Automatic annotation (TrEMBL):
<dbReference type="Pfam" id="PF03637">
    <property type="entry name" value="Mob1_phocein"/>
</dbReference>
<protein>
    <recommendedName>
        <fullName>MOB kinase activator 2</fullName>
    </recommendedName>
</protein>
<feature type="region of interest" description="Disordered">
    <location>
        <begin position="1"/>
        <end position="22"/>
    </location>
</feature>
<feature type="binding site">
    <location>
        <position position="188"/>
    </location>
    <ligand>
        <name>Zn(2+)</name>
    </ligand>
</feature>
<dbReference type="InterPro" id="IPR005301">
    <property type="entry name" value="MOB_kinase_act_fam"/>
</dbReference>
<keyword id="KW-0479">Metal-binding</keyword>
<keyword id="KW-0539">Nucleus</keyword>
<dbReference type="InterPro" id="IPR036703">
    <property type="entry name" value="MOB_kinase_act_sf"/>
</dbReference>
<feature type="binding site">
    <location>
        <position position="193"/>
    </location>
    <ligand>
        <name>Zn(2+)</name>
    </ligand>
</feature>
<feature type="binding site">
    <location>
        <position position="109"/>
    </location>
    <ligand>
        <name>Zn(2+)</name>
    </ligand>
</feature>
<comment type="similarity">
    <text>Belongs to the MOB1/phocein family.</text>
</comment>
<dbReference type="GO" id="GO:0005634">
    <property type="term" value="C:nucleus"/>
</dbReference>
<comment type="function">
    <text>Stimulates the autophosphorylation and kinase activity of STK38 and STK38L.</text>
</comment>
<keyword id="KW-0418">Kinase</keyword>
<feature type="binding site">
    <location>
        <position position="114"/>
    </location>
    <ligand>
        <name>Zn(2+)</name>
    </ligand>
</feature>
<dbReference type="GO" id="GO:0016301">
    <property type="term" value="F:kinase activity"/>
</dbReference>
<dbReference type="GO" id="GO:0046872">
    <property type="term" value="F:metal ion binding"/>
</dbReference>
């Protein structure tokens, strides 16, 4: 569907008539060059706008959800359910949903369009198993995230599913790590691929997924508020600003998992 649009500029270029004005291509280029030099020579004294307009904050889009369900009730730990079991099943589900949401725009997230893994003005770096910082493009970063999370959630020693098996002592720390990475992916989709998400009519899904995810990590204090601060404006709109968005959500009375 979207691929068709890509063919338009090439078509136009093929069918555009040759210039009839007698101006040679060189003359046109020289004229363009003069205009460019002129505009460079006359700076207006102001720096260019640091950020593009955040389309995802426009009310007509933030209103879009696939359900009006009260997620605060949905994320709370049900009675008689083990906390780790609850964290495990929700984290696994969010991983699958966020992976799916990213896959809808992945053809637009390439090494050329997204040379770094960024969300608004924040840049993320991947650290390998030895803690070495790696320079990578956004699709490479997302690939690292998805493959490492896939490995963890399918590891019986980390996410046990069989009766009688215990969660490891590092379980909570690993869940926090997974949620942090998944947040980066969501933030990247909003900041770099919201227009494509809109074109695919999937923004209501994205908003619903984001609100559910943020309320879940807030409930169990799984992602540092400094980490989520980059999307506080959106979080305030989608999850209710008055009740304390990502910036101060860490002190919530219902947090079951303590900061370390
Ligand atoms: Zn991208």
């Amino acid at each position: 569907m979207l691929g068709d649009h890509g063919a338009l500029p090439a078509d136009r270029a093929l069918h555009s008539p040759p210039p009839k004005t007698g101006l040679s291509c060189k003359t046109v280029l020289q004229a363009v060059g003069r205009v460019l030099r002129k505009s460079k020579a006359k700076p207006n004294g102001k720096k260019p706008a640091p950020e593009e307009k955040k389309v995802y904050l426009e009310p007509e889009y933030t209103r879009s959800r696939i359900t009006d369900f009260e997620f605060k009730e949905l994320v709370a730990l049900p009675r008689e359910i083990d906390l780790n079991e609850w964290l495990a099943s929700n984290t696994t589900t969010f991983f699958h949903h966020i992976n799916l949401q990213y896959s809808t725009i992945s053809e637009f997230c390439t090494g050329e369009t997204c040379q770094t893994m960024a969300a608004c003005n924040i840049q993320y770096y991947w650290y390998d198993e030895r803690g070495k910082k790696l320079k990578c493009t956004a699709p490479q970063y997302v690939d690292f995230v998805m493959s490492s999370v896939q490995k963890l959630v399918t590891d019986e020693d980390v996410f046990p599913t069989k009766y009688g098996r215990e969660f490891p002592p590092s379980f909570e720390a690993l869940v926090r790590k997974i949620c942090r990475y998944l947040f980066h992916v969501l933030a990247h989709i909003y900041s770099s691929h919201f227009k494509e998400t809109l074109a695919l009519q999937l923004h209501a899904h994205l908003n619903t997924l984001y609100a559910h995810f943020i309320l879940f990590v807030r409930e169990f204090n799984l992602v540092d508020s400094k980490e989520t601060a980059v999307m506080d404006d959106l979080t305030g709109v989608l999850c209710g600003g008055a009740s304390g968005a990502g910036s101060n959500g860490a002190g919530g009375a219902q947090n079951h998992v303590k900061e370390r």
